[in-house]
């Protein structure tokens, strides 16, 4: 892009200073404590609007082969892979009223995938399904999740509207005892936890939030009864309403254009603008995406993962703004490595980053007609400090007469709420409806958070064991002292922007661990030495992106401006390399994760 030509050392120094000032404007002393969770008096924000009151049922008291905690893509894929290898009794336990996880809960108007559908939707080869849009609507993705679950025979044994309350290993019988909030108490030979990442909605902890007398909900629990319409729009219930939306992250960017179309007036309360890049969604044919031979989807998603993991690839099949910006995503990923000439590398990186961000800011100016509004919509931080977003509708919405942007950066967000609306500075914005697009808590979804008590061998609690020594796993999946417990999508593995791909690889691995244990009559449990070796691998080439996140504008990526957690939390060479490592390990070293059953069991 031409913008790089303007990037003199002086221009870069100015940018650095502007980024510093904009960050300082936003850092709050209360950090992550600024948020409220939807418990106690705010519990109605988290209620399931889609399932209604769950039907009465008898508590379950039986025994299954595998209990899968979580019915999102992780749990569904684990179940599907296990069933395909002949495991009979697989029980998925899910808090929502059906399969789908994040796609069950998030049904807000405008919801779409923002990773290409043909690489995001898993098991396309196996199900024969070919998405029809480059970026699929949420409902299509939710239905695909249900399709995989049903084709894999997971529905009959599943427990919905049910939350697992404890997992306890019983050494005598060699089984896990699973209890739930519906009075269930059953046994499982293996437990797979697929509890997701961003699962618990959060609200701004502003004074007076409980006073608001208008209608209010969070985007992950959309109230179509009030708004009318569907995820495609047509929100007729808002035609004469003053609607406010708080939050302009990946969710806000998708929901604002739909609200703008239908609300009487829309106030968008923004604290930090997102980077909004070109989306170019379009219908696709099977031919466009090469869906003409077995394995086409696997090849395509491997190609995408290669590119966004910083590996070289002969071609770029997806060819979108994720892949074209892949060089700038490396710092977001743990694959960010230390090159030999670090100073030169960082200097080149900074120029590329500034060019990209100039391009993003120039786009705002081109699209938004009011110069003052355009100025407020420009993001001043380095690319990928926040989750990049993509839209050809969001910035355009601010050219409508019924849309007002309210910049709340100087007040560190909306300041307070009254019976009638939201206060920012000297102005009270009176509203009929306030929608929170304020995201989700970080670090509370995995089993290490302690929300779900897990007691292993000898009654040891997982989070106590990890509190003293730090997380200890082999490849992120298994831990000594917690036999036959397999964790998916968690710490000490390797994340990617295409999270369903990661989950599918984890599901294959989880199923292989169960198969190996069954074949050899063993427990799945790594030795201490195997854990140590894995921790050493993580530490050996630990990513050095702390400097980057520390300079970023606050958000959930950097604990609201405080930086990343200490210690190696992910495999340093990225998801593509990690999956290859797992495959090799399965072929050569699987015994490291197995342990003979105790005498009591045999
Ligand atoms: P988010 O990225 O955490 O955004 C929350 C928004 O709320 C931010 O704009 C934040 O401002 C704002 N906010 C919080 N407190 C505020 C306050 N007191 N006053 C004003 N604004 C306030 O949440 P999200 O947009 O729901 O996205 C979460 C994640 O879900 C994404 O990063 C992505 O991983 C995933 N997602 C994916 C898709 C997709 O692929 N289709 C779509 C949506 C979401 P600050 O930035 O200033 O904190």
TrEMBL record:
EC number: 1.14.13.-
Keyword NADP applies: yes
Family under the similarity heading: Belongs to the FAD-binding monooxygenase family.
Protein's recorded name: NAD(P)/FAD-dependent oxidoreductase
Database matches in SUPFAM superfamilies: FAD/NAD(P)-binding domain
Cofactor: FAD
GO molecular function, one term: oxidoreductase activity
Keywords: FAD, Flavoprotein, NADP, Oxidoreductase
KW Plastid (keyword) present: no
């Amino acid at each position: 892009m031409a913008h790089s030509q303007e990037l003199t050392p002086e221009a870069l120094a100015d940018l650095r200073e502007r980024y510093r000032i904009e960050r300082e404007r936003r850092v709050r002393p209360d950090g992550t404590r600024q948020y409220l969770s939807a418990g106690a008096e705010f519990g109605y924000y988290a209620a399931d609007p889609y399932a209604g009151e769950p039907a009465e049922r008898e508590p379950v008291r039986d025994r299954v082969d595998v209990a899968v905690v979580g019915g999102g893509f992780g749990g569904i894929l684990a179940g599907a892979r296990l069933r395909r290898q002949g495991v009979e009794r697989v029980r998925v336990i899910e808090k929502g009223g059906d399969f789908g996880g994040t796609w069950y809960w998030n049904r807000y108007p405008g919801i779409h995938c923002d990773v290409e559908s043909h690489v995001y939707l898993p098991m396309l080869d196996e199900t024969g399904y070919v998405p029809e849009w480059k970026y699929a609507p949420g409902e299509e993705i939710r239905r695909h999740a249900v399709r995989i679950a049903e084709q894999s025979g997971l529905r009959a044994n599943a427990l919905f509207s049910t939350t697992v309350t404890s997992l306890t290993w019983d050494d005598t019988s060699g089984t896990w005892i699973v209890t739930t909030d519906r009075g269930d108490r059953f046994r499982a030979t293996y437990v797979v936890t697929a509890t997701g990442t961003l699962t618990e909605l959060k609200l701004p902890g502003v004074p007076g939030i409980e006073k608001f007398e208008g209608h209010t909900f969070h985007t992950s629990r959309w109230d179509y009864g009030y708004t009318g319409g569907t995820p495609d729009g047509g929100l007729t219930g808002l035609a004469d309403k003053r609607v406010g939306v708080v939050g302009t992250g990946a969710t806000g960017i998708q929901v604002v254009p739909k609200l703008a179309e239908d609300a009487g007036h829309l106030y968008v309360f923004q604290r930090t603008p997102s980077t909004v890049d070109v989306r170019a969604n379009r219908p696709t044919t099977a031919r466009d995406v090469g869906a003409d031979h077995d394995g086409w989807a696997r090849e395509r998603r491997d190609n995408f993962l290669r590119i966004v993991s910083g590996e070289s690839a002969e071609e770029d099949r997806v060819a979108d703004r994720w892949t074209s910006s892949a060089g700038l995503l490396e710092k977001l990923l743990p694959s960010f490595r230390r090159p030999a000439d670090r100073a030169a590398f960082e200097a080149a990186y900074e120029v590329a980053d500034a060019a990209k961000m100039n391009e993003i800011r120039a786009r705002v100016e081109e699209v938004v007609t009011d110069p003052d509004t355009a100025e407020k919509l420009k993001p001043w931080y380095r690319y990928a400090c926040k989750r990049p977003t993509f839209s050809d509708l969001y910035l355009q919405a601010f050219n409508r007469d019924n849309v007002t942007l309210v910049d709340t950066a100087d007040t560190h967000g909306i300041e307070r709420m009254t019976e009638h609306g939201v206060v920012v500075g000297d102005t009270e914005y009176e509203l009929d409806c306030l929608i929170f697009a304020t995201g989700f808590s970080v670090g509370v979804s995995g089993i290490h958070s302690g929300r779900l008590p897990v007691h292993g061998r000898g009654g040891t609690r997982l989070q106590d064991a990890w509190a003293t020594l730090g997380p200890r796993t082999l490849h992120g999946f298994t831990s000594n002292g917690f036999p036959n417990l397999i964790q998916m999508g968690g710490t000490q593995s390797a994340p990617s922007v295409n999270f369903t791909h990661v989950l599918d690889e984890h599901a294959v691995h989880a199923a292989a661990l169960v198969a190996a244990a069954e074949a050899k009559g063993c427990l799945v449990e790594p030795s201490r030495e195997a854990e140590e070796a894995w921790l050493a691998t993580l530490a050996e080439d630990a990513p050095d992106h702390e400097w980057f996140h520390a300079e970023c504008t606050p958000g959930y990526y950097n604990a609201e401006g405080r930086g990343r957690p200490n210690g190696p939390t992910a495999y340093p060479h990225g998801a593509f390399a990690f999956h290859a490592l797992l495959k090799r390990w399965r072929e050569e070293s699987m015994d490291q994760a197995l342990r003979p059953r105790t005498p009591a069991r045999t």
